[in-house]
UniProtKB/TrEMBL annotation:
<dbReference type="Pfam" id="PF13560">
    <property type="entry name" value="HTH_31"/>
</dbReference>
<protein>
    <submittedName>
        <fullName>Helix-turn-helix transcriptional regulator</fullName>
    </submittedName>
</protein>
<dbReference type="InterPro" id="IPR041413">
    <property type="entry name" value="MLTR_LBD"/>
</dbReference>
<dbReference type="InterPro" id="IPR010982">
    <property type="entry name" value="Lambda_DNA-bd_dom_sf"/>
</dbReference>
<dbReference type="Pfam" id="PF17765">
    <property type="entry name" value="MLTR_LBD"/>
</dbReference>
<dbReference type="InterPro" id="IPR001387">
    <property type="entry name" value="Cro/C1-type_HTH"/>
</dbReference>
<feature type="domain" description="HTH cro/C1-type">
    <location>
        <begin position="7"/>
        <end position="83"/>
    </location>
</feature>
């Protein structure tokens, strides 16, 4: 028997049994032999067949759609982590996984940035640079050391493909720009239909022939660390080792650290 299918069955059973019937609008009753909700009650709440739901809990080989999982998650009042686990065990993509994610940097991370001595910044879902420290401002002069209007943020992709100084600032621009597009495609692979993502891709494709060409190549790379070199207008050639971290609580954010290379 498939281990994921078995885990999905046991997980749903545990979620069903943990709640009190009253919390879901059912009378508790003295004749209940089932802890928590009955299978038929879960099926009723989710608007699915009781027989079909029973088969899922029996780990039978049935096809569970993302829509059905969504209804089950709502019916069982699953938390964000539980909902994510449900979809992972069913090997389905949650259609609402990225909804209601506010693209702001948590205050704890912003405060942490102030105590980091090397260049560091936080990127959001569309690679807006949401927060940064003084060392990053000194490095990205003309981008991070200027005032931005309320509600607007500098964007790494806009900088690389539309800023007039980017090709001189980023050493080996063509290779780095190509990799950035491949990394962005990988990072946004489950969100390509989101309006903000589509708008950014259209904007960059119209503004930069290079971006349009790189995007059409459909290269995919996970965001990686490694050596980064910049030709700073006053400090000259500067080299770093880049590390990108993701906060567990908000995995759509990226904390980028640039350690000066020896």
């Amino acid at each position: 028997m498939d281990s994921r299918r078995q885990e999905l069955a046991e997980f749903l059973q545990a979620m069903r049994q943990r709640g009190s019937p009253e919390a879901f609008g059912f009378p508790s009753g003295v004749r209940r032999r089932t802890q928590g909700l009955r299978r038929e009650e879960v099926a009723q709440l989710a608007g699915i067949s009781a027989t079909w739901y029973t088969w899922i809990e029996q780990a039978r080989e049935v096809n569970v759609s993302a829509e059905a999982l969504d209804r089950l998650a709502n019916a069982l009042k699953l938390s964000k982590s539980e909902r994510s686990y449900l979809f992972d065990m069913a090997d389905r993509r949650d259609p609402h996984a990225h909804q209601n994610q506010v693209d702001t940097a948590p205050e704890t991370l912003v405060t942490m940035l102030k105590h980091i001595q090397i260049p560091a910044y936080i990127m959001g879902r569309t690679w807006d640079m949401l927060a940064w420290n003084t060392a990053a401002s000194d490095l990205f002069s003309g981008l991070l050391d200027i005032e931005w209007p309320a509600g607007e943020h500098p964007n790494l992709l806009r900088f690389v493909f539309a800023h007039p100084a980017a090709k001189q600032f980023v050493v080996n621009w063509d290779m780095r720009a190509r990799r950035l597009v491949a990394e962005f495609r990988a990072d946004s692979r489950t969100r390509l239909e989101e309006p903000e993502i589509k708008k950014l891709i259209d904007e960059l494709s119209n503004a930069s022939a290079e971006f349009a060409a790189f995007w059409k190549q459909h290269d995919v790379l996970e965001r990686q660390g490694g050596q980064r070199a910049f030709q700073h207008p006053t400090q000259g050639l500067i080299q770093y080792q880049q590390v990108t971290l993701r906060p567990v609580e908000q995995e759509h954010l990226k904390l980028v650290l640039l350690q000066p290379a020896d």
